[in-house]
Write a structure and sequence with these properties.
Length: 227
């Protein structure tokens, strides 16, 4: 039985060392890791954007999540937008979408609306502008330039759909399958060890582990010599 297992292991090792297998393994892991990273990014974005009062800003770029329908159909509830900071009123024009601190009943909230009156100086000498939600019947009250958080640069597509899908029952199953796909080789090896645990010589396993470690050390030494 042990000799038979040695032959099977030898055949399996040849398959794993083949160029086709290595290519398949690389493509498989790349695709799986790509989806895992996308999922992780979507989760992080939504967790961060749901923390009250802690809107993330990195290098002048800020992530916002649309939570009302005032800008529909241009911005739908759940859409993710990225704003860039503005340092001068000259950077804002009519038609831009800007995010700003709400006042009155909207105090403590961040509003994203479209500019309908460009920044200008009022009778008090302050720089003000006016906005309006596309779906709202009336414009907003004039706001001061200092209340602006940023100007919309980009709307990130599909993030909301990805987030909602992977929070569903089927999404979680797909996520688990991706994890299994990444570690498929290790899972298969573990199953084989469990199935043949009575037929495997422990000393032989230790010897193989040492041989693999020696091969890896040899490859590292050869790479260093090549450099």
């Amino acid at each position: 039985m042990f000799k038979k297992n040695k032959k099977e292991n030898s055949k399996l090792a040849k398959v794993k060392n083949s160029k086709a297998y290595r290519t398949f393994s690389t493509v498989k892991n790349t695709i799986a890791w790509f989806f895992v990273v996308i999922i992780a990014i979507a989760m992080v974005i939504f967790v961060i954007t749901r923390i009250n009062g802690n809107t993330p800003s990195v290098f002048g770029y800020t992530i916002f999540r649309v939570s009302s329908g005032s800008m529909e159909p241009e911005l739908m509830i759940g859409d993710i937008i990225i704003d860039e900071s503005v340092d001068s009123p000259d950077e804002i024009s009519v038609g831009d979408n800007i995010s700003f601190d709400g006042k009155g009943d909207l105090s403590g909230k961040i509003i994203t609306h479209k500019v309908i009156v460009a920044p200008h100086e009022d009778e008090r000498g302050k720089i003000v502008l006016q906005t309006k939600g596309i779906a709202n019947p009336i414009p907003d009250d004039p706001i001061e330039f200092s209340d602006i958080r940023g100007k919309q640069l980009y709307k990130v597509p599909y993030v909301d759909k990805i987030y909602n899908f992977f929070l569903s029952q089927y999404g979680l199953i797909v996520f688990l399958l991706l994890i299994i796909l990444i570690f498929l080789d290790e899972i298969v090896n573990l199953i084989r060890i469990i199935i043949h645990r009575n037929d495997v010589d422990i000393d032989e396993i230790i010897r193989k582990i040492k041989e693999e470690e020696n091969e890896k050390q040899g490859e590292q030494i050869q790479d260093n010599d090549d450099d």
